[in-house]
Amino acid sequence: MAQTIRTIQPGELAAWFEAFSSAFYIWHNDPHALAVSRRDTIEIDRVVGAFEDDLIVGTFRSFGSQLTLPGGARVPVNAVSGVTVRPTHRRRGTLSSMIADDLARAVARGDTASVLISAEWPIYGRFGYGPATWHARWTLRVRAAKFRVEPSGSLATLDPLAARKVLPGIYEAYAAGQPGELARTENRWDVDLGLIELPGRPRWRGQVVIHRNDAGEPDGYARYHGEENWEDGIPDNVMVLDELHGVGLAAEIDLWRFLAEVDLTATIRADTRREREPLPWFLTDARAARVTGLSDMLWVRVLDVERVFRERRYDRDGAIAIEVIDEPDGPDGTPGPAAGRYRLIVRDGAGTCRRTEESADVSIDVRALGAAILGGTRLVDATRAGGATEHRAGALAEADLLFRTADAPWCSTFF
User: Fold this and answer.
1) Does this model's pTM top 0.85?
2) Which candidate in 17, 20, 124, 127 is catalytic?
3) Sheet holding 340-347, edge to edge
4) Distance CA 191, CA 186 (A)
5) 124 is an active site residue
6) Residue pLDDT, tens place only, 69-95
7) Would residue 25 show up in a list of annotated catalytic residues for this protein?
8) 392: left (phi over 0), alpha (psi -120 to 50) or beta
């Protein structure tokens, strides 16, 4: 049966959530309660359904955000979420049709890229997305964690209502300087601080601490909660670090120190941190902090190559002609929006870029470009199994060096 891809009407939101829940059965959602709770915060004109007659067989939604590039520029991106196909309607091209529809909308809006967090690795590479940031689980054994530097500034615990007024500003100041990070919607703070509860999800219950610099200005915060373990009467409790951000490194390390000194704690588990944390280098015994897991996080699909090349900063200078291979998404054979040849020239860390008719030094697939564009995935790694063709010896290595950054990007924002 033919399918129609369109934005839903407000009255169809409960049916949309019912279709969504058929795929994400692991969350026990009441679609009608979800529709009531989300109708004032969801961007209804960006909530899409794949319809067979009146039945929604696929769901897709997006929202606008800002992505921080290397160097601190923030560009508009299309953030994708809520992607499902009913188990009864798989393998019929539903996902392909919804993604083609969404990418066309994103290009029309002028978004520089589309971003998402992939539930499964194999899905989104075929639509031009590449894994651009990575996150690690860190475990800190606090009884072995002694710090090499003295504290600075001051710390204070806040109740959720007070934290709601302060945390968004701290986060924005941090995110503006963190490549790979995304702007957050206002309504998510109410959920993150447990001020509201989404149907089907447990309300967050925990503690909030903020850091103030020597001038008394808030410049960092941590949210955390606990898991009890009192075997044999010994407090081996686990502190689960929901997030910790500092505008500067001093605030970040002070917050780690505070958490490590909270009574009754044996271990701190932080699930969404950088792969390379500064923390171990501030400990007298760096083995107290260990990476215990690593995974991909933010996937990027570049739409406006020229703008992204111009807006980001580079750690080294160079010049190269790159052909981006962006295979057709639809039956009409039209190449994707990133397709073309581009001349990138970098001087003093700033790039200029224009389309060109000259011969390319190297051709790379759009998914490899998305993986490498923030500097968190090496281009030579993203193309090891294919996706790059050198037309001049050494050009792939040159492009790899241009895109690499000294500090890896990091995205801590699930959506």
Assistant:
1) yes
2) 124
3) 350-355, 340-347, 318-325, 362-365, 388-390
4) 10
5) yes
6) 999 999 999 999 999 999 999 999 999
7) no
8) beta
